[in-house]
Fold this sequence. Notes:
The strands form 2 sheets. Strands 1, 5, 6, 7, 8, 9, 10, 11 and 12 form a 9-stranded mixed sheet that branches. The protein has a 3-stranded antiparallel sheet with strand order 2-4-3. It has helices at 35-40, 65-72, 91-100, 111-119, 165-206, 208-212, 223-236, 257-281, 349-360, 366-369, and strands at residues 13-20, 29-30, 52-53, 59-60, 76-83, 129-132, 148-150, 243-249, 288-294, 313-318, 325-327, 347-348. It is an alpha/beta fold.
Amino acid sequence: MASTNGNGHGGKKLVVVQLGGGNDALNTVIPYDNGHYRDLRPAVGIPADDVLKINDTLGFRPGMEPIKELWDEGKVAVIQGIGYPNPNRSHFRSMDIWHTALPEDIGHEGWLGKVIREMDPQGENVLTGVNFGRGLPRALGVKGVPVASVGNLETYGLFPDMQDEALRKYALETFSKMYGGERGRDAVLDFLGQTGLDAMKGADILRTAPEMYRSNVEYASNQIANDMKSAAQVMFADLGARIYYTSHGGYDTHSGELVTHAQLWGDLAPAIGSFVDDVEEHGYGDDAAMLVFTEFGRRIKDNGSGTDHGSGGVAFMIGSSVKGGLYGEYPSLAPEDQLEGDLHYNNDFRVTYTSIIEDWFGMDAAPIVNGSFEKFDLFKN
């Protein structure tokens, strides 16, 4: 089991990248020699000659060259056929399932929020979990668990322009009255008040991270690259952050998929490559692992310009401590094996979660993922 202490950098760290909209697994890890793929995707199929081949049957889409380089170095685990029973093709419901690890019920606690609570039961560090983006993903949401949500690292905070703490508290109370109503006022006030106080505690601390950052790695000028750079800045500042979360949207490719998907991975793959280079340059490579996931895959057959909501997706674990390779089975594209035109999942996403929780963080996964699951051997000793 991997150590929870790391090499003096405040413990093992997990970076989560959520691909919002439903990333097309078939055009990400491509079965380039499969006749069914060619026949069913006349409009959006990637030519075999363009595929970045990783073995005799599979390869990454063009634009994923930085991921291919990491694969060649043994730092990428491709989790094929990932999903859950009775797949739901609603963006909101499916993402909620991934966030709460409850496929059959409505959950109220995010799986990563529970991980943070286990790491810091008293909520002593408001920066144990940091989200880079607007709002707070449900995966991080647990009552009483503070999480910093950062839209811009330079201006982080709730009502950040209000320097007077009493004035900020007054603003929070006014906000709660406006949106909470009298009946719900106390609960809203308590939540916003604590959120605001946590934000104020973390704001000034987080703003120091960019000032301390020095690197030879150059990131591209786009949002996902900025988020990856911000995660690196916070990590290297040794502020006690263990969970880093960000989202990359736009993967709902019902139309114009060839252009859109190429642009998305053309931004994402270099951002991931730069981040891995950065953490390795700064000596955090052995202590940082990255999970890349999406809520569902796409239909096998294209719709003439894109692909519609499907199942049987793909996820990635990336990092120097990751055992690179293929995990799970690539789902069959044969008509008789399809799930109503979709790929069948063959491994529950909670297998991957369990592997991360137990073998990376050294925790008991069952209460976090709501059950006992097998594990992949994803990490080096």
